[in-house]
UniProtKB/TrEMBL annotation:
Binding site for NADPH: R40
UniProt keyword annotations, A-Z: Cytoplasm, FAD, Flavoprotein, Monooxygenase, NADP, Nucleotide-binding, Oxidoreductase
SUPFAM superfamilies on file: FAD/NAD(P)-binding domain (SSF51905)
Keyword Cytoplasm appears in the UniProt entry: yes
Stored InterPro entries: FAD-bd (IPR002938), FAD/NAD-bd_sf (IPR036188), TetX_monooxygenase (IPR043683)
Domain FAD-binding: residue ranges: 4-344
Organism in which the protein naturally occurs: Streptomyces coacervatus
Protein name: Flavin-dependent monooxygenase
Amino acid sequence: MNSPVTIIGAGLGGLTLARVLHVHGIPATVYEAEPSPAARTQGGMLDIHDYNGQLALRAAGLMDEFRAIVLEGREAMRILDPDGNVLFDKADDGTGGRPEAMRGELRQMLIDSLPAGTVRWGHKAAEVRALGEDRHEVAFADGTTVVTSLLVGADGAWSRVRPLLSDAVPSYAGTSFVETYLFDADTRHPAAAKAVGGGMMIAPSPGKEIFAHRESGDTLHMYVALSRPQDWFAAIDFTDAAAATARIAAEFEGWAPELTALITDSDTPPVLRPHYALPTGHRWDRVPGVTLLGDAAHLTAPNGEGANLAMLDGAELGEALARHPDDTEAALAEYERAMFPRSAEAATFDGAEVLGIDSDDNTAQRLINMFADNSR
């Protein structure tokens, strides 16, 4: 089978690319390993920034659809100290530039904007190889193959497409999340719900923090961040939910009970989410007929920019291809010239500082200054 534009990965970046190509009348096919859009939970809330993610949605012609899924009030921000004292409290007055939406709803919005059959579910890329003459073949785990003259790796941290362009592999970034949830929090966990407030809450401390989001309804979604080596986490048996919860909570001994309850009272087993990153400034020489976007191109530890950058990558690549309908290589070169410095700059935005787990005692004040500046 031959395909003119083949996109590997139906994440936000790959779907945005497919949508922008569709807006410009350019056919594309997206191959996704998951068997269906609902095969797994797609993660929590995302703040979509006016300087990158929203630009992508405008290029995709989907701003009205996006506004319909925004969770009102979730741009509220609180910073607490370990004793539960409120150090910073900013209400969502509707003037912020980072409205929040659920990742799953955002993804489904993009899927729904594409012609039926654009996404081929249940196609896990197993091997990718160059055929010469700017063509590449993708072999899938089900035994099928596709040959394409334009291959885009939108397949995340462990991209199968990346080796065509680069020898770089992600390495552990030194931090991990432990993910927990509280459901019906306002009635079942009122003290914790009050501490979190109406939007996002960060309780930072050197080497660790509790980060919480109020999602749809009164669900609280927590990311407990710890700066620890991988073997420290490997010593914890996460198949034993009670023991793992107790071990993680022990790192926050002495903290206010309304904060530690975000760990100990979890309605779900704790889930470990280690962070990986590609080398800062990762780039490659131009290889005809193939490129990367999103985490496949510039994976970093969480710093608030990843999903937004992936969407902007997809939109800008789609628009470059539309501007150069008869010169794919010119389009890819134009896209990469803008993407490389943009992603390198975003990578310098320190994830540890954003997460509040710097190794010194000034983290809280830096976070307050950062969020105060963003609110002006």
